[in-house]
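Troubleshooting entry. Yesterday's outputs looked truncated, so today I'm pasting the complete records for two proteins to confirm everything comes through intact. If either block looks cut off, that's the bug. Protein one:
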Amino acid sequence: MIREVALAAFASVLLLFYVPFLALGYYIAGGGELRLPSPSLVLTTFGLAALTAAVSIAVAYPAAYYLAKRGSELEFALLIAPLWVGTLLKAYSLLVLFAIVERFTGLALWGSALGVLVGMVYEYLPYALLTLYAAVEKVSETPVNAARVLGAGRLQAFLRVELPLTMPGVVAAFILIFLFAMGEVIMPAVLGAWKVYTFGSYVWDLYFKARDIFSGSVVSILLTGLSLLATYVVVRTIRSFSI
């Protein structure tokens, strides 16, 4: 009985998730004009999303490791506090920071891909931190101590034992951030000054500037499909390097 209920729930989720893809065939069969994004726009979006996920994990992992091993509740709260701030407010706060940086260093971040990347990493860093913290915290000290007893140094024990054991958390963090970043609209619009054009910005323009809700809907579905495909490839690749 439980198996049948679980199977029905799984089938319902699949149905709800994939039925919208039928809109693509319906729209094309009806003779609708599909406004597809350019390949360069797709590459820009994928590159930004992948870099955002990679940089967020690289920055968050040491912090998550520290919190799981020696961190206090106050330090944990301070690191995840940005989650309570809205994305638009974060973007405009970063605009002020970019102006200060440009004034003292001459580095213009506003309207550049680097500025958008900084904003997206700032936005999604707490998600990576939470995911990695959960992965590191549940790793038992027993295999690490066993490796140390057998002669492994601290760094070697981390690279050969702890890091592989936390790879599921790394994969989960990458998928989470990559999917969020693929559809990001606010950071490219505010920090990129519409000079850094992404898939999310393209869908926004189709809906609210061109008023082409059909193309916008179909392109949104295509974005979802491409995100799922990219996620599958990334997961397969990362798992091939883990134990």
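Protein two, checking that the full record survives here as well:
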Amino acid sequence: MKTKLFISMAIMAGTFAFSGCQKEGCTNSNAINYDEDAKKDDGSCILDTDTTSQISLHFHAKLGTADFAYGTEVTNWEGRKMKFDIAQVYLSGFAFYDDNGAKNMIEDSYVLAKAGTMMYDLGTITNDHYHSFGFSVGVDSVANHSDPASWPSSNALSSNNPDHAFWSWNSGYIFIKMEGLVDTTADMSGTANAAFVYHVGMDMMRNDLMFMNHMEVDEDMMMTVEFDFLELFNGIVVRGNNQDTHTMNNMPAAMAVRDNVPNAVTLE
């Protein structure tokens, strides 16, 4: 009898010990009810998918390797002197992409970025691990042909924005606006004293940029973007007929600026 009782107790002890090794619970470390002692997932994990973080943009304007400065004489790709009085650009469609390529867009993220103004609020994004980050230099087609008066006064596209740049419902916004002075002498021996005006817009001039940058978004984050306005003139002889473009009147110059955008923008 004592032998049978001993065997039964041994079986019970073994069963208890086995169950202890197989403790069930939530084994997902990203869940709010994660159980570090659990050895087997019981399907109870609760993921806090509603948690979001605030994303801001640090817009770092440059003139070549130097920080941007209005009215300062700089030398472009061919050695021609230039000064900038206006330098601004519409940025939009800020989005993060997960490892599967799924797009998580920051809603209504439109920015009118001006040289000299560095910080802009973009909005919120769901906390997650992301594979890449992207945005457009320019404005999507729907917004581009909207009425500026229809946007909230705080929106970059609003006509209430004192710097807003809009041609018409047909042509839309001026994506890139640059004005200043340039040396127009043939041998580039003069000073920057002749006006240049570059206004680049229309749907076909938008650039969609993507940057590979693995990141874990689990708190408020700042994205730093360098934008080199001098690089936009690379390959353009800014004199004579090329001293201005309002896009349609000088499409080659506008397209040259558009094509230079990918080399002018860097994600730090």
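Both blocks look complete. Sanity check on protein two: The first helix runs from residue 2 to 21.
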